[in-house]
User: Fold these one by one.
Assistant:
Number 1:
Amino acid sequence: MIVAKFGGTSVSSKGSVLTLCNIVANELGRQPVVVVSALKGVTDLLLSLSTLPENKIEKKIREIRKIHKNLIVSLWNDKRLQSETFLYINSKLNEILQLIMKAEPGREFLDKLVSFGEIMSSYIITRALESKGMKAEQVISTDLIVTNNNFGSAEFLVESTKRKTQKILTPLVKTGVVPVVTGFIGATRSGQTTTLGRGGSDYTASIVGYCLKAEEIQIWTDVDGVFTADPRLVKNARSLPIVSFKEASELAAFGARVLHSRTIRPAISAGIPVRVLNTFNPKNHGTLIVEKSRASGKAKAVSFKRKIILVNIYSTEMLRQKGFLAKIFKVFANNNISIDLVSVSEVSVSVSVDDKKNLEMAVKELAEFSHVSVIEDMGMVSLIGEDITSSTKTIRRVFEILDKEKVLARMVSLSAANINISIVVESDKVEKAVKALHDKLLLK
Ligand code: ASP
Ligand code: MG
């Protein structure tokens, strides 16, 4: 059994839907379960409905209708299939209208509202697979994924989700039916619709794969997998054939937006390989994410963040003190500020944050017991690879390259987890540093 998840762009055009059908047809021998996102842009449109004045709602709904209608019309010549599918979409759009009329505003309402995106897309994809001669069945994941009440970013409950998922999906795949599961949505124990957070369809795929002990999870998207660097900045970046879960998580945290680490954790924890593939270039090897890849001490990828703020805290009070760091971190925590990097000496602490929000207040509080300076407009460059900090050669090369480019490291962090080297540099040096490190360390 495998799980194949198709993201928004992969279900939005005739070409990509036909590719999807081919991919599924080729995998029939491995009992595929399909998971789909909403059509591209639909989740945002649905969310926007919640804030519109009544007289603007009709127009937005027409927009959503048009996106689905265009796809339906382009997919098939069969008029009956077209009108049946369109009828379904229309009935859902009516339900949406009803919901908006009578619902109380709030997170519960929003989750119910956005869930329609995946409900509509999964119907179209089911019909598309059938039109290619496959047996397929739409499965609304409120019947599979049981979650807590954390609307908007719900967490799944392992045992009940496992039970329901196996009970519903196993008989389908065993009889040669391809389940087409809505991504992104679940339901509380009492049956209220929840969502798993933006981009949550990957999470759905991972949860379903975990519950069914799938042999592989495929995430079909619109890029060739996980890259050595952001290809928008680094033209010669290439996709990595294999990365470890830790590397993938680190890359996600440091700006590469392919997969969120939370979303693939269930799969990885069960030892299920996750493959990121490109619907628009299906022959590309993509990127395989596994629990552990062979550690080499080499850098695999470079990522970056702009708009980093460096906070330097200096105090002689710190000398041989106990609990001083706790005192500092408490200030950040109390002000709801998340810290990225930390570097400590006997009398000073530097931290980097990526959000100015609440910082002023925190600085005020810190200044009550230390000298504080804030340097804005910094950037962070991170090199990622298993065991990277255990290679003296890699570390030496990093600083040689920065030296050659005349980029000064304002703060350095070598993770003890051995997985990243992060360097804070002036914002306008980020690009130069990323390109140089990429070309000299990664292109070999
Ligand atoms: N449609 C949802 C979103 O846009 C979930 C997903 O695509 O993964 O966030
Ligand atoms: Mg998406």
Number 2:
Amino acid sequence: MTVSEHARALRAEIEKHNYQYYVLDAPLLSDAEYDRLFRELQALEAEHPQLVSSDSPTQRVGAAPLPEFVAVAHATPMLSLNNAFADAEVAAFDRRVHEGLALDEGVDEADYSAEPKFDGLAVSLTYENGILVRGATRGDGSTGEDVTVNLRTLRSIPLRLQGSGWPTLLEVRGEVLLWRSDFEKLNSRQREQGEKEFVNPRNAAAGSLRQLDPRVTATRPLRFFAYGIGGAAGAGLPATHSALLDRLGEWGFPVAAERRRVSGLGGLLGYYAEIGQRRASLPYAIDGVVYKVDDLAAQERLGFVSRAPRFAIAHKFPAEEAVTELLDISIQVGRTGALTPVARLLPVFVGGVTVTNATLHNEDEIRRKDLRIGDRVIVRRAGDVIPEVVRALSGQRPATAREFHMPTSCPVCASHIVRNADEAVARCSGGLYCPAQRKQALLHFASRRAMDIEGLGDKLVEQLVDGAVVRTPADLYRLGLSALASLERMAEKSAGNLLAAIEQSKQTTLERFIYALGIRNVGVATARDLARHFGSLDRLLAADAGQLLQVPDVGPIVAQSICQFCSEPHNLEVIEQLRAAGVVWREGEALLPAGGTLAGKLLVLTGSLPTLTRDVAKAIIEAAGGKVSSAVSKKTDFVVAGSEAGSKLDKAQLLGVTVIDEERLLALVNTPPPAP
Ligand code: IVH
């Protein structure tokens, strides 16, 4: 055997054992034997570096840390599922499927693929010619983050597809998660090393995947399950979803052993009951089951409504509840001054985490639920949702229980509290004078989707604001090593890291900067729309309400918030200071693909188009710079109508909006639309 043959044989042997262990859950070797093989390959590759190939198991670990994550646009959007909780909602789903497919009543039952709903994070894996070339997080569904080096460390993810007959281009979708036992081990390790523990397996998995240093991810025992594909080219695929999952299994992916093909509503509900019983004994957390119409051609026919498929639904398990004591109600002051009453609870374990706080939303909510401090209360938590207090056990109310009253002045800065007659929330009128609002504004400014200053957490902001070291975001850029190092829990090394992160944040993008400003009602998506539309900050700052309203998706409330923000001299001053401190972004450059023939156009799709599915039509429009909205208004530029178009078409005609067909749409994306 030549050296190169020896290396190849070792690689195949090691990947076989990875597969046995992580995919089939049937290890053939002891850990020590596996380690011996691994070290043998490492030694061989060290001696003959020319033999190292990217799909070698040794190359799963040890890639260099990334400076930041790169955004990846998903070729087809990663959508979400509609949820059903009650059997009646599942029945309605089954009925819609029947109608959509025009199955004969009672004669034919629809066939479904029923699967566990993994409680982890969705990722996409792209294979070219059978080799893993990219892995990405779901992100907002259209754009995720490139986490290829991290995903390569998961030994349940094949670096090279097994078997044969795979498409030359294949995008596999699935879920990354942690087994419960691995989560316990990870947390006890964190504890031993004096690190923060994770609240649940899902958070631990998310945190582990979003590590800039893949060597950290490699120490976290993440697992993967495939549940579908995002696209494929260059080979025929099976006709059903369940056969597709079988095929993914043959190509080396873990697929849930609990999946099953069932028929009709009875089959669905039977599956739900069975998995519900087995839930606690599964090695990983699930929050429900997913039903998908099994026939892929039928899936295509059913299509999508807005962000979710018509051919699938998630049937969720009921939220978990527990009884505990309402110790107190305290007030939290948010970034916009909103006062939120927070329930302080006797710690209780519910839905996989220990809950000590729960939001009470606002004063009316507390009255409606008639909660008193000292009450025994029911606390509910579902999935990753914020825990809530359902109600009080008023029959068990102690004599000492007392009513809660909203304060009349801000508990933090003593400013007046105002509550508009038409609003449920009370707000502190202190603005940035209020330290609580200032802290939240700074945290927002530094947050991941804003300026992304890693290491600037709430404890630190607390000290910086309380010590009057930092008042505005611009002050962050004036911080020095000595000021930071003198703070509590701040060693010189972490101070240095923070300063580097602050320095790095100066290179940003217009949309991040706009979002970071924390303008009321301007979230990530609106910030992006504004950046695309105006291209420069000065143009945005100078825009009047009328110009703002021309931005797709910007309505009167958002426009007013922006105008209000820009009319406040203090805000403009901080912006100037930030620019003077060296915060820069590229201006003038539209983020739309060059030559987008639908740039700035708003389209509405209605009816079924002869060849394009909804989501394909949408993707085509977006690629040409256009936006798709679900309702027809005066702002709509084109309504694309297919057969059986309904009320949207009527509305378009009423408003005089141009109606086009699929052919015309396709022509438009290749040629500029006529001037109005
Ligand atoms: S199919 C078109 N199958 O649930 C939607 N999703 O709400 C395709 N999930 O982001 C999703 N288990 O992360 C599908 N067996 C399963 C799933 C599953 C968990 C997650 C997935 C997705 C979310 C949808």
